[in-house]
Design a protein that fits this description.
The protein has 339 residues and is of the alpha+beta class. It has eleven helices and nine strands. Helix content is 42%, strand content 21%.
């Protein structure tokens, strides 16, 4: 038995030395360490030995198994390293690598980030709200009468349960006032939905930016100064602004903002609507809150909003708003990193 173990031990090390491929090394492993391998068979024969021989030959067999396993592992690493080296022998390291094109942000996202940065410098915080809302937040709280055309099904997307896709992000202003007491300064960028015919200047889904500032002694001068500062930061210091009287249910007085800038056009362009928050809006918020935090006797505020797609079309001189949805790289690559 001792001679058999010593003979098989020498044979295993010799077979290990002669193995030059991973496949032949695998055969050597199975031959000696497999379930029916040499070492397992010799272990089975141990039960036939006497009590005196069994511990001596058992230690010898265990030592052989340990030594052979370590040598096998070392040889396997060596063969794998050799195979890796051979795989790169024919590689020409002077060849240029494979280039992977790097993506960029959509120009609408870039413009939104730029607008948010400007308002953050003025102390405005970002606010969000649900795209699916109810009539109270979308119309009633904003002093929009029941007969207003915007509340008709031909203008607004209604759901079977009576809720609707918000027609403006002014709903976020109402929700913000419900949750916080004045003073309050927020911006609310997000999607709005209207049943408009899709053409070169209209989409059924578009991005709107709403601005709200509420507090004590907020005046029309604050509105004018904030709007002009924002537009000149965005469009350049030579940008001119004018305010034309208009009507919105949720502001009084209300205005349209026109701009004229050397970098865009020498003509006046209508850009945004604005006004001082109507006291009826504050009263609706107070009723929902159950307090008088927004008492119009002491609290005032201004709001204005504009469409980001329309602003992007002006800045980038894009003739058709639908081009912003087509994901045409010939267009998108022109504006990556701008604004």
């Amino acid at each position: 038995m001792k001679e058999d173990i010593e003979q098989q031990e020498r044979a295993s090390l010799l077979a290990l030395e002669r193995a030059t491929e991973t496949d032949s090394l695998k055969e050597v492993r199975l031959h000696y360490l497999g379930k029916n391998g040499v070492i397992s068979l010799l272990s089975e024969k141990m039960k036939t030995l006497s009590k005196e021989e069994r511990p001596i030959l058992g230690r010898h067999l265990h030592q052989w198994r340990t030594t052979f396993s370590q040598a096998l592992e070392t040889k396997e690493k060596l063969l794998n390293q050799r195979a890796d080296s051979m795989a790169f022998e024919d590689l020409d390291s002077s060849l240029p690598g494979t280039s992977f094109p790097q993506g960029g942000l959509h120009p609408l996202t870039l413009l939104t980030d730029r607008v948010v940065q400007i308002f953050r410098r003025l102390g405005f915080s970002l606010a969000e709200g649900p795209d699916i809302d109810d009539e109270w937040h979308c119309f009633d709280a904003l002093n929009t009468p029941a007969h207003h055309p915007a509340r008709q099904e031909q203008d607004t997307f209604y759901l079977p349960d009576g809720r609707l896709l918000r027609t403006h992000t002014s709903t976020v202003q109402i929700r913000a006032m419900e949750e916080a007491v004045p003073p309050l300064r927020i911006i609310a960028p997000g999607s709005a939905y209207r049943r408009d015919e899709v053409d070169a200047t209209h989409l059924a889904q578009f991005t709107q930016m709403e601005v709200l500032c509420v507090g004590e002694e907020i005046t029309l001068a604050d509105l004018k100064g904030t709007a002009e500062y924002f537009l000149r930061e965005l469009l350049g210091p030579q940008t001119e602004c004018r305010f034309r009287p208009h009507f919105f249910p949720f502001t009084e007085p209300s205005f349209e903002i026109d701009i004229r800038s050397p970098i865009i056009s020498r003509k006046w362009l209508e850009l945004a609507g604005c006004g001082m928050v109507d006291p009826a809006v504050f009263q609706a918020v107070n009723q929902r809150r159950g307090d008088s935090a927004y008492d119009p006797e002491y609290i005032s505020g201004f709001a204005f909003g504009f469409g980001l797609e329309r602003l992007l079309m002006i800045l980038a001189q894009i003739p058709d708003i639908r081009m912003l949805l087509e994901n045409d790289l010939r267009l998108l690559k022109q504006f990556s990193g701008e604004f």
